[in-house]
Specification:
Blueprint: E1 8-12, E2 17-18, E3 23-24, H1 26-39, E4 43-46, H2 58-71, E5 76-79, H3 85-99, E6 103-109, H4 115-129, E7 133-137, H5 139-142, H6 148-156, E8 161-166, H7 171-181, E9 186-188, H8 195-200, E10 205-208, H9 213-235, H10 239-245, H11 251-261, H12 282-290
Helix pairs in contact: 1-2, 2-3, 3-4, 4-6, 6-7
Length: 301
Amino acid sequence: MSHHLAPGVWGVVATPFVGSAHTVDETGLTRLVRHYEAIGATGLTVLGVFGEASRLSAGERRTVLEVVAESVGLPLVAGATALATAPVIEEARLVTETLGDRLAGLMVQVNSPDPITVAGHLNAVHEATGAPVVVQDYPATSGVTIRTADLAEAVKAVPSAVALKAEAPPTPSAVAALTAELDVPVFGGLGGLGLLDELACGAAGAMTGFSCPEGLIACTRAWHEGGYTAAREAYLPYLPLVNFEAQAGIGLAVRKEAIRRRGLFLEAGVRPPSRTLPEQLVPQLARHLSATPGAILAGAR
């Protein structure tokens, strides 16, 4: 039987690129994941939406998995980008071959509004690969909208499910409904925008990317140690930057530039057709970082 994912913060890892060819930057990737480990992340999620996995070749995906696994000892979740069963199985086999027993879960997107179809899809992926499943409900990427009650029904029918990532707004009410029905832990995403409210509604933590994941960890730890008041106090200094990174269409570019300015990436490039950071927003990003606790690390350029 697969083990449920541990509560806390599972950092979604951005993939750094260098040069005009946008070559995977293994040095920057190593620096980023070691930082996650050093600040106390519970685990890491690689090849997610903000890891630009859909724009990586199979060889590049393998490289990312290998670099992360060799760089840190944290448990790893790996994402699959496809919606149909056969290509997800193909992606999953690359993941299981590369990570072996380091794999804590394969993150698979909800691919239908019908719970029977979803459960059949997830069970088929597990049966073909043996991978424990993290169910991702992210309609902004998948284009699939499922009712919360139907999502709970689907997950109940997947014995290999080890977590659910709820990213269909409004997420706090969805988290409340899902945690009331399910034994598997439910994690929030969306850059941590709703983290405080999701924790209040029963979330196990966050599975997301943010240029200052220290804020996600501080909020989650404070919630468990002191409840709402403590978590709110811990998270408040980070919320302007969280909100700034949540801008539709350019969120990835904002985050990667923030990570670069922290000294973790050499460059902040995104692969086309992702939109780049508008020059008009660069000064405001600098203001946000200067006002965020610990945002600029020692040695940052």
